[in-house]
Each structure stands twice: as C-alpha cells, then as structure tokens.
Amino acid sequence: MVSCPHRIPDVSRSAPVVPAALLTVALALTLTSCTEGGGEAEESRGSAGLRDPYFPQLGNGGYDVTHYALTLGYEPPSGTHAEARLRGTAVITARATRDLGSFNLDLKGMDVESVTVEGVAARRKRAGQELTVTPENGLGEGETFRTTVRYSGVPETITDSDGSREGWLPTADGVLALGEPTGSMTWFPGNHHPSDKATYDITVTVPEGLRAVSNGELKSESGEGGRTTYSWHVAEPMASYVATIAIGTYEIRRSTVGEGEGEGEGRGAGAGRLPVYVAVDPAQAEDSRAVLARIPEVIEWAEGNFGPYPFSSTGAIVDRPEDIAYALETQNRPVFPGAPDLSLLVHELAHQWYGDSVTPKSWRDMWLNEGFATYAEWLWEEDHGGDSAQEIFDALYEGDYFQDAASNEAVWDFPPAKPPSAARISDSPVYERGAMVLHKIREAVGDDAFFELIQSWATAHRHGNADTADFTAYVEKFAEKRAPDADLTPIWKEWLYGEGKPPEA
Ligand code: TRP
Ligand code: ZN
Prior knowledge:
By secondary structure, the chain is an alpha+beta fold. It folds into four domains: 1-43, no CATH class; 45-245, Sandwich (Immunoglobulin-like), CATH 2.60.40; 250-352, Neutral Protease, domain 2 (Orthogonal Bundle), CATH 1.10.390; 363-496, Orthogonal Bundle (Neutral Protease, domain 2). It contains twelve helices and 22 strands. The chain has helices at 20-34, 40-43, 285-292, 295-306, 342-350, 366-383, 389-398, 405-410, 428-445, 447-460, 468-482, 489-496, and strands spanning 63-75, 85-96, 103-106, 111-117, 120-121, 123-127, 130-134, 144-153, 157-159, 165-170, 175-178, 198-207, 211-214, 217-224, 227-238, 245-248, 251-257, 274-280, 314-319, 335-337, 358-360, 464-466. The strands form five sheets. An eight-stranded mixed β-sheet has the order 5-4-8-2-1-12-15-14, with no helix packed on it. A hairpin with a 2-residue loop joins strand 6 and strand 7 (130-134). The two termini are 24 Å apart.
C-alpha cells in the first residue's frame, strides 16, 4: 500500500562516507585525549559524554543547561551560500550538578575566539567535538553560572552513519540547520544530548532581503545598515536536536488555531488562540498552500487525542526537496522537504507531543518518538475514512503493507527498543513496529483506556524526558487501575524487546 521510507539518505552531495574502522579509531583517540591529566582535577571534571548507548560522546556531565542565548550573524560572500560564515555568541546559563573545576561543551568545527565564565576569561582546550572549559574560579555544586563563547567559521555539514546529511545544510537561497541526532553542535556550543533541555533566545542577523526563521515566537524584526535582525524566543524547554534556523527567502503566512479568545470555543475550554507561523520557499508555495492551511485542523484533532498542544506557537518551514531529503520535527514548526502530504504533516505535528515535549532520555528510546508519530498517522487515517489502525497493523503483520517484499521483511529486523546500531535508529522497526507496540497496548486495554493513557503519558512527562522503562512502568501502573485484566507482559517481551516477528496472539 505504501512505499515511503521515512528518511531517504541523501548521498548525492555528501562527502565520501568514512569507513566504520576509521570512525572507531577517531573515537578512541578522542576518548584518550579526554582522560589525560589526573589527581584532584579529575574529581571535579565534568564528564565529556553522557554514555548514550549510540552516541557516547554526546552531551556532558556535571551541569544542566537552563537557557541558551544565541546571537548569530550570517555572512554569505556575494553569490554563494555554501561558503557563508557564521559568527556567533552563545551565552549558556547552567547549574552545576556537582563541584566543577572544569566542564565540557560539544562543538564540532568553528573557531573559538573566547570563552568567559561569569564574565571572567576561562582557559579552553579543544579535542574533536569536545570544548573543555576551565574557569578561573571553580564552580560549586548547585551554583548557576553563565558561560559566554564567541566563535565563528563556516559550519560543517555532517554525514550520518546511514548516509543522510544533517547539521549545517546550505540551500539554494540560504541555509537550514537540522540537528537529529547530532547536528546542532555544528552551529552552537552546548550540552548536545536530548536529556538536557533548556529554553532559548535565538537572534539571527542576515543580509537585507533574506529572512531568518527559528523555533518559538518571533519577538522582533529590525533593519539597520543593510542587515535584518530576527529575534526568536523559545519559552518551553527544547532539546537541542529539534532546534533550527532556516535562512533564505520565505513566504510567511500567519494564522491561529482556535476561533475564540477562550472558554468553550475553538481549541477547548480556556485554551485560547495558538499562533501559527508558516515559512515556505517561494518555489514550494503553490504546492504547499492547501495542505498547510490544514494545520489548525490537524492541531485540533491532535489535541482531542493527545491533550493540549504543549507549546506557545506552531507552524511549518518548507524548503525545496533538493535542499533536504527528510522532514524533521523541529520544535514549534517542523521542517519539510517540499510540500508535505497530509500524513507527513500529521506525523511531524504529533511529534510536538511525542518527541519534542516528551523527549527520549537517550537515542535508544527513539521508538517513543517514531512509534507514536507513526501511530498518529494511523489514527488520522482511521478517523478520516481511511484504513483503520487495525487494518494497517494487519497489513504490516501479513507483509503486504509496503510495495516491496524487502521493506515488508525489514519491519522485523530488530526489536523497536533495541536498534542494533546508531545507523539504524531511523529504520522501519522503530517506526512501524513501534506503532504496532502501541496498537497491541490498545488491543489489551481497550479504546477508552488507551486514549486516556496516551494523553496522560504526554501530560505526565510534559516538557520533560522519558525512556522505555518509564513507559512500560507507566502503562503497567495505568492498566492496574483501568484495565486490570490486560496482559502486557507478552507485548513487552515479544513486540518491544523480542527478536524476530512475534507469534500470532
Ligand atoms: N525524525 C524524523 C521524522 O520522523 C526523521 C529523521 C530525520 C531522523 N533525521 C533523523 C530519525 C535522524 C533519526 C535520526 O520525521
Ligand atoms: Zn518521525
């Protein structure tokens, strides 16, 4: 029935793929350089990674970021965006979670010009993607401190182990910054792991005639001396992998979700209006118009199923298909490679609840994002005269969902909760089989309890993080009260963690 891989690796413009063996060597070297030194300093050193099962170097231990203030200048040489320089100042407010003599930030590429902590110059050292900062004065556990990093350069584009491109992506008329799973460290220093969420202010100055679109709400737009500055404010916590900036020529369309000012109208009692900010590449404007006009309808439908929309604004960013090869659930306004079809729109907007608001604790928990967003597509179909979720489940189980046999087989390649490697965290088992796990839960607890469950899960972890064990424990506890006869153990054992195709129930 369907033949749409979720993420089409875009190798057409990528650098040669680095052999896995070389990557291993590079990783080993970086790790070695991070462990030199010793004695007391070792005790008070924030770790250079959070031991993510797939990306062990990502993120840093010893502190929690609460806010990023990024002030960015985009400086393209005339005529080309590929060589455009980025000049940045990142002010990172964080709280030390233990005594710190030094700590790390993730930053890949770029030249660091200065680092200060609480306004005092700090020593810095770079090794691979690690920027080690040693403040003049140590930081005490619980202390809130501000680090300011000034940096510049031409940001890098990253090629992931599955061949897709992320990070800094020059487009026909500007640039697009996308960060799943590791790309955000190419354009700002930070704690680049999904477990450390923070609020943001993102201010971007571009040459007059270009526009800068980001997450959150546009607070100001001002021009001076041939340049325009756009200031975006992200009021709700955001994981860095869903941060974005899109620079280029865009057509802007603003609207709202909800007719009324409150009570009883539009988005339900007290919800008020939700601003919609849509930015579309002019080349995609005509094809996108009808589908993007349905954003309010999709949001209202989603609120009915998943609970109140978790953020202060919504929308979309549409670039050209030749600019990027995949969609991404960037917070507030997902990015699309050309005009999306309705199910892709539903998928990315559903991620605002599942992924952006309830964010995985590690990259192993990806199915909590993709299984939910895929199941949202099924629910949309079911509610709009298409196949029911049961029919889609059955087609997948019988192996006649995708057009080709290999794709139908690939659904069973590995258990959704245990992708075999970083290269496979966006494969079919994470999406389709992840959605099948949710359908099995629905079958076990019944419709009423199921819809209550997926809403209360989103509420319980709103603006936070959760992992697979949190989810199964939550479902168990919920079922004790609402569906005491439900037998969940085989779902976890066979569907979530089991190798191969689960036996027919
Ligand atoms: N999260 C995206 C989606 O489903 C797909 C995607 C883009 C992705 N880049 C990725 C998934 C990197 C895993 C890793 O809409
Ligand atoms: Zn997705």
